[in-house]
Write a structure and sequence with these properties.
This protein has 19 residues and is mostly helical. It contains one helix and no strands. It is elongated and about 25 Å long.
């Protein structure tokens, strides 16, 4: 399972890639 921090990092990266 991914750690909360990992999820936050992935969410941030996803937001950047979406922009």
């Amino acid at each position: 399972m991914l750690a909360p921090r990992q999820l936050l990092v992935q969410f941030s990266l996803g937001s950047i890639f979406q922009d």
